Amino acid sequence: MAETDKRDSALDDITTHIAKAAAIAERSASDIELVAISKTRSASEIRVLLERGHRVFGENRVQEAAAKWPELRADYPDVSLHLVGQLQSNKADDAVALFDVIHSLDRMSLVRALGKAMQKQDRDIPCFVQVNIGEESQKGGCAIAETGDLIAAARDAGIPICGLMCVPPSGVNAAPYFALLAKLAADHELSGLSMGMSGDFETAIKLGATHIRVGTALFGPRDATA
Ligand SMILES: *Cc1c(COP(=O)(O)O)cnc(C)c1O
């Protein structure tokens, strides 16, 4: 099969799986945004999905996104580009200029940097507060107990907060972590839930995900070093 055909059917397969999981959860599939995670993928791989009509993409590095997306966007101005990776405060200006949604707001220093950058550029970028839902020392995200303070500080800084995001511990059932994030979001009256990746997006949808972040299942396996 040609590369293009493979990716065509992957997008169709995932769309079908989203619809099925949504139906089981008695939700509308249109309430679930598929963010195609295109980190490490070439512009030509990305174009295959763009040509199929997909418009929502996610990257985890500001520099990589800045190198790839201006040219793609010139051809597809209605693209929505999401940042899903850890963001250094000194890249806040670049991130605000480039992205439409940020999923990784996870600490006070970043609240300050993003608040300033948005004000300076007069651009309001909706952000998810990333929660370290498994309380893993090596992972990004704020501590569960700090979520409320971070949301409040972000709002004070003029940052629109659209929901919570998590990357649960790997190798274990993600469902309890998704349920915990959903509860935390409800406690804070937030409707957005960015959770679920290639291996567990159906579970995430059943537990309320509004944004699923899918890379491998759409594009095939990534280079292990990425
Ligand atoms: C890479 C990445 C994904 C996509 O992971 P897959 O397993 O390839 O679907 C989702 N979320 C974040 C934060 C990522 O870095």
Automatic annotation (TrEMBL):
Sites bearing N6-(pyridoxal phosphate)lysine, chain numbering: K39
Protein name: Pyridoxal phosphate homeostasis protein
Entry similarity comment: Belongs to the pyridoxal phosphate-binding protein YggS/PROSC family.
NCBIfam families named in the record: YggS family pyridoxal phosphate-dependent enzyme
Keywords: Pyridoxal phosphate
UniProt-listed CDD domains: PLPDE_III_YBL036c_like (cd00635)
Domain Alanine racemase N-terminal span(s) in chain numbering: 23-222
Cofactor(s) required, per the database record: pyridoxal 5'-phosphate
General function of this protein: Pyridoxal 5'-phosphate (PLP)-binding protein, which is involved in PLP homeostasis.
Sample GO molecular function, one term: pyridoxal phosphate binding
Entry-linked HAMAP family: PLP_homeostasis
